[in-house]
Amino acid sequence: MQVGLFPRWGGRLPKAGSFIPVWPQGERCMDADVRYFQAQPWWPELPAAMRDVLERRDPAYDVPDPRDYADMRYSFWQPIDLYQMVEGARARAEELGLRGVILSSHLTTISAEAANVLAQIAYECEHYGRPFEPPVALITGGHLDVPVGDGDGIGGRNQEFALAWGQLLGSGRLASKRVVVAAMDSDGTDGPGTQLAGGKPICMAGGIVDGYTLQEAEEAGVDIASELARHNSTIALMKLGSAIHTGNTGACLGDLRVAVVR
User: Fold this and answer.
1) How many CA atoms lie within 13 A of 229 on its CB side?
2) Contact of 86 with 259, CB cutoff 8 Å
3) CA-to-CA distance for 12 and 7, rounded, in angstroms?
4) Alpha-carbon span 43 to 46, nearest angstrom
């Protein structure tokens, strides 16, 4: 663990070194945000009280002005950040004889789409040695998203990422027995949380899959495509013995995903 201190303020606000802001990051932006929200298909689904507050552009609900904090006596300690997490993963990969490559420390997109794109890169590495010769560990950080829509399943973004990639590794052009993928939330709580699981303590950190996952699912009577459509990744991974459970780690550094191509 490293402890780094921010420079003295000197009349200016320091910039946060993490994806979690600890003070306002810029100018007020409610007007622009409301216009953006109103253009989204989910705007009519917001509660009427919420739409009313936004449409009135009440400044009391806007972000605070950063200048309001300039004279505060304030210390901020950040023992570790997401950059150290992905760098730590890269260093560990190289200790194990792999080439460690950080593709992105801030990958933010839909889980299944991220799995598909990164699977294409892994395929390129495995079959053509580009952009990286195997054995290589492809590392990404950052939070993914899962638009659940009408899905009634129990899952999490890293679990869905892993399960989606596991499906690709089992059949079709991207099938491979030389790729292993693990994805997890650094705080150990990828989802769903007991509030959606009937009180059962099944909050998982993530999942791990390989080219045998699809076959194992078929043998266990788990329809991965159907479970992904329901966003039911937690239950599917638990049945396959492929869920990662750490408990609360006490850290919050975003997500970590590693794909090893042998």
Assistant:
1) 5
2) no
3) 10
4) 6
Token pair 């679990």: residue: 159
Task: Summarize pLDDT for 82-119 with one digit per residue, the tens.
Answer: 888 999 999 999 999 999 999 999 999 999 999 999 99
Count of the separate structural domains present in the chain: 1
Stated as kind and residue range, the H or E segment containing 4 is strand 4-5
What tokens appear for 106 in the block?
């801030």
Task: Examine residue 245 and state whether it is found in any structural domain, yes or no.
Answer: yes
How many other β-carbons are positioned within 10 Å of the β-carbon of residue 100?
21
Identify the burial level of 18 via C-beta atoms within 10 angstroms of its C-beta, where 0-12 means exposed, 13-18 middle and 19 or more buried: middle
Residue 87 lies in a domain: yes
Tokens of 126: 């495995």
Q: Which two tokens stand for residue 119?
A: 């699977």
pTM (two decimals): 0.78
Helices (H), the chain: 30-38, 48-55, 82-95, 111-128, 157-170, 213-220, 224-229, 233-240
Q: What is the pLDDT of residues 131-190, one digit of tens each?
A: 999 999 999 999 999 998 888 889 999 999 999 999 999 999 999 999 999 999 999 999
Paired tokens of 12: 């200016």
What single letter denotes the amino acid at residue 170?
Answer: G
CATH number, domain containing residue 106: 3.40.1480.10
Does a structural domain hold residue 189? yes
